[in-house]
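::Encoded backbone::
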Amino acid sequence: MKYPRKADRGVRFVLSWLLLAIAAAPVFAQQPAWPNRAVKIIAPQAPGGGVDLVARLIAERLGRVFGQSFYIDNQAGAGGAIATQITARAPPDGYTLMIGYVATHATNPAVKRLPFDAVRDFTPIAMIGGTPNLLVIRPSVPAKTLAEFVAYAQSNPQKINYGTSGKGTLNHLAMEQFKNVAKFESLSVPYRSIGQAFIDLIGGEVQAIFPGLAAAMPHVKSGAVRPLAVTGAKRHPLLPDVPTFAEAGYPGMDALTWYGIVAPAKLPAPIVQRLNAEINKLLATPEFRDKLSSEALETMPMTPDEFGRYIESEIAHWTRVARANNIEVE
């Protein structure tokens, strides 16, 4: 029996691969460019909140850029965990995006056992921006400055209760972090929302709250609450007379209510890069920056890799705070 020579077999192997490539070429050429239909942006919060606001601002402008509809799907519940699980299980085809924010990708993973991994099960696409947190008190509390508030709380441990939007939320963890460094006791009172906490603050049931600046501003402007200090590296332009915690002697208080765009894991790199580039262009426009600033949000452009590292650092930070204070949410 006569066998083909090795050279002949090699030629036939190469020819077979060439034929396969030629046959497959029309199939690849027919793959539609993304996006060729409507894109869903999941908002892990009911309509009307900060997450919903950011989602709608982004969706409207991305729709213009890409010539397709970007629509909002509000999925409230479990502090954002329901929406996050839906997103993690969606196909990584670019037609399901989500507003990943400080709850879904920082504090929830720090305090809850979740049926997904906030890092491995998602593709970070772009950071949008954030608002610092602001410590506010009832005007009846005898303190005009942060130092006076700490002294009063240390001397009157039974007289300072603070409201939160729920156990394990950012405003809860941030206040626990501050209590630790300032060495005073204060009982946390959880509410279903920060709005309900403000109602009881104004009504006298609690004496302090540590909300995001955007949520606090209407009450600051009305005079219903007294601002003492803001997180972050610099004073906020909306409250130029309110010092940072660092200025007041408490560095490291960097709590930030931030918002970005994520997708299911393994989203193709070309889609990630296109979205990141267009969102960062948007963040650079004065019109969009001014719109966010009017809502007490400052832009924070990042590459996908930078945003991914930021998420990891946030989870690590709030996990340390939660463990130090034995905070776990069932």
